[in-house]
Amino acid sequence: MRGLSLTTGFIFILILIFAFQTKDSPHGEDFDMSCKLCHSPDSWKLNQENMDFDHASTSFPLEGQHVLTGCRECHVSLVFSQTPSQCVACHTDMHEQTLGMDCGRCHTPQSWIVPNITEIHQLSRFPLVGAHLTAGCSDCHPSASSLRFAPLGIECIECHQQEYLDADNPNHVEADFSVNCQECHNVNAFDWSGAGFNHAFFPLTKGHDIANCFECHTPGSDYSEISANCYSCHETDYVNAANPAHQQAGFSTECQQCHTTDPGWKPASFQEHDGLYFPIYSGEHQGEWGTCMECHTDPNDYTLFSCIDCHEHNKPDTDEEHDDVGGYIYESQACYQCHPTGSAEDGFDHSQTQFPLTGAHITTACVDCHADGYEGTPMQCVACHEEDYGQTTNPNHQSIGLSTECQNCHTTNPGWQPATFDEHDGLYFPIYSGEHNGTWNECLECHTDPSNYNLFTCIDCHEHNKPDTDEEHDEVGGYIYESIACYECHPDGTAENSFDHNQSAFPLTGAHITTACIECHASGYTGTPTECFACHEPDFNQSTNPDHAELGLSTSCADCHSTQPGWQPASFDIHDQFHVLEGAHAQIANNCALCHDGNYISTPNTCVGCHQEDYNQTSDPPHLSAQFPTDCEMCHSQSAWKPSTFDHDGMYFPIYSGSHNGEWGACIDCHTNPSNYTVFSCIDCHEHNQQDMDEDHDEVPGYIYESNACFECHPNGEEPFGKLRKVKDINNERAF
Q1: What are phi and psi of 104, to 5 degrees?
Q2: Could you tell me which of 193, 481, 595, 596 has the fewest CB atoms within 10 Å of its CB?
Q3: What are the tens digits of pLDDT across the range 552-574?
């Protein structure tokens, strides 16, 4: 019987524990662990040695010092789910939030000591190298506690500005040195000396491998302006050079053309000599000379050289060997011109040059053309034949300004004959083709003025008497009996192919059809401009509606006018570039004065610029007193002032949609102060008496019976949450 009672009691206790766990557990409503993992039927008192609960089964396994920590030190509340897992929730942040909230980046549960701070720093945006590797933390991160490690800039100057200001050898400030220290100093170095200086922009090698900076940078000099050009430092070496004498010979001051940075300027070479002048490092002359003076016998002029002084070429033998070479002379320049590579097999062949010899040039002696040497001999005919050009009389080339391009008319045949001017057909008038082919013998038959070949005659040659020609052209507007007129209408000399203005670059339309030719071609038919303004400048200047000149309108008349008489009709399509004419404005587009009132320059292109009076006089609502924006297009279109729109829904409050759509008639229904539209009323319109509203909002903290409060909780005019919720829920929602 007693055993039954104990069993019954034990069962009862278990039932109570189960009931307590599922209904009123002190560990929180969501706690679903079995009580017996920690508690026994003997007592609620926790016995850590006997309990079956394993903290490793949670999201926070116990490691290091946490194993020895009592439960209540972390679980100050029996609701275990409320216990935070972040280190800073239990441990004071000695670094005062300068390193972030993730303690695990540096610390472990074993100890607060950080044994690998250097390795950790290497993962930051400023890895420690050089002198920074041995610096103490507080050297860069000073603080009263020595535990604040506020982030620092990673640019050298941010920590080393004082060193920059104090530097005097050289003085960085006066020299305006860069504040990017790494341009000169090596971050791996342990001091600021030259040993850590980065001279990569001008590598110090060979002869430049010097330890004393002042050999190049003299004390007090500006370190930032020293030239990298060899000559700037080695001018004295250049001037004193004697073999060869660089200055007297006019050598280039680009030392690197011959020298390297090897000490003593040797070895030196001038490899460009082969490509620029003559092969001495290759070909038959390679290794055949010791010094420059062997060929350049004049040390003061290296443009001079000798071939005949060096080679075993006596003049009689050489003359005999070249007895069939026209223009041959026993002279070094001539040797070079025919043997530019120094090889006998590679002799000069004029036919392979840019000036092959033909006609009279074949029998001409070389010296006749190369009297000043073989270098730079011109290839233009007039360079040699200018005297022939100047003395020519039929026609007189010089007086009539004929081209000096002799080949346009002449060949290289002796005596300049035969000569033709085939370009005459294409450039001027067909005389070698068409109806005039073979009908003339010399230029003076048409060009009767030998001093001016721009003049020509048609009527002196053809059997065209003036009365007959006048009668034949009686229907041709602007016709005159004059040779230039003949040419303008008959440019190829045929009657059938007379001039058709409509096939030209300026077809005749409108008023131009009935205009006499002479009115446009008063100065002749050549070069007549095709721009309207060239003929109609007076019309442009005299226009008054509007005044084109005063307004600075475009002189491209075709932008607005056609060729119709009287300049009408006219349009100003580019008006859209200033102000687009549409709606009501399009209806008055032809009445410029209505908007411009005689002033076309400063007419405003904003709505309010013209409609300020409409804005001021508007009373529903009163735009001026309510301080409405003057950007009329926010509400109105260009068609009419009504209907008008205002994006009240998107900018302020939905009145064209939602519960308020159709519930109002005029702005004054809500905006009760006509002088201030920022003031509005909710409680004056809705059937909300204060007593009912107060009672309906008795659980809403901070509630007041006031229109602005209505708007704050009902920004779109609807119930904010569908139905009012508990104060607790509202507080949570608002993060109170």
Answers
A1: -65, -10
A2: 193
A3: 888 888 888 888 888 877 778 77
Compute φ and ψ for 294, nearest 5 degrees: -65, -35
Confidence grade of residue 321 (pLDDT, cut at 50, 70, 90): confident
| SS3 of the chain: helix, strand, coil, percent, to 5 | 35, 0, 60
Residue with tokens 């302020």: 652
Q: DSSP character for 224? A: T
Contact 573, 558 (CB under 8 A): no
What is the reported pLDDT for 552? 80
Tokens of 177: 């040195």
Q: What is the pLDDT of residue 654?
A: 92
Report the chain's mean pLDDT, rounded to a whole number: 80
**What does the block give as tokens for 227?**
């030239």
The whole-angstrom separation of Cα 234 and Cα 251 is 14
Helices of type H across 44-111: 71-74, 87-90
Altogether, the residues listed in the chain come to a count of 736
Structure tokens at 449: 């003025």
Q: Which residue has the tokens 């005159």?
A: 480
Tell how far CA 203 is from the center of its chain. 34
Q: Which helix (H) or strand (E) holds 276?
A: helix 272-276
Task: Kindly report, residue by residue over 514-538, the tens digit of the pLDDT.
Answer: 776 777 887 777 788 888 888 899 9
Q: Indicate whether 635 pLDDT > 80.
A: yes
Nearest residue to 241 (alpha-carbon basis) of 253, 232, 229: 253
CA 45 to chain centre: 78
Closest CA to 256 of 275, 276, 234: 234
What is the band of 731 on the pLDDT scale with cuts at 50, 70, 90?
very low
Phi first, then psi, for residue 83 (nearest 5°) are -75, 120
Q: Do residues 248 and 296 lie in contact, with contact meaning Cβ atoms separated by under 8 Å?
A: no
Longest dimension (CA), the chain: 164
**What's the rounded Cα separation, in Å, for the pair 414 and 394?**
17
- Decide if 608 contacts 630 (C-beta within 8 A): yes
Give me the sign of the Cα torsion angle 155, 159, 163, 164.
positive
Q: If we measure between CA atoms, which residue out of 138, 115, 140 comes closest to residue 126?
A: 140
Note the pLDDT of residue 195. Answer: 56
38 pLDDT above the threshold of 70: yes
* Contact in structure between 251 and 237 (CB atoms under 8 Å): no
Q: How confident is the model over 260-314, as pLDDT tens digits?
A: 888 888 888 888 888 878 898 888 898 888 888 888 888 777 888 888 888 777 8
Contacts of 648 (CB under 8 A, 6+ apart): 654, 655, 656
Burial 429-450 (b: 16+ CB within 10 A, else e): bbbeeeebeeeeeebeebbeee
Burial class (CB within 10 angstroms; exposed 0-12, middle 13-18, buried 19+) of 167: middle
Give the residues across from 108 on adjacent strands: 111
Which pairs with CB-CB distance under 8 Å and at least 24 residues apart come from 75-84? Answer: 78/26, 78/27, 78/28, 79/26, 79/27, 79/28, 79/31, 80/27, 80/28, 80/31, 81/28, 81/30, 81/31, 82/28
CA atoms of 493 and 728, how far apart (whole Å):
108
Q: How crowded is residue 636: how many other Cβ atoms within 10 Å of its Cβ?
A: 19
The answer to whether the CB of 125 falls within 8 A of the CB of 133 is no
Contact 10, 40 (CB under 8 A): no
Q: Find the DSSP H helices in 543-685.
A: 548-551, 584-587, 592-596, 607-617, 648-651
DSSP string computed for 296-333:
---TT-TT---STTTSS--HHHHHHHTTTSTT--SSHH
Contacts of 250 (CB under 8 A, 6+ apart): 302
Tell me the percentage of the chain whose pLDDT exceeds 90. Answer: 2
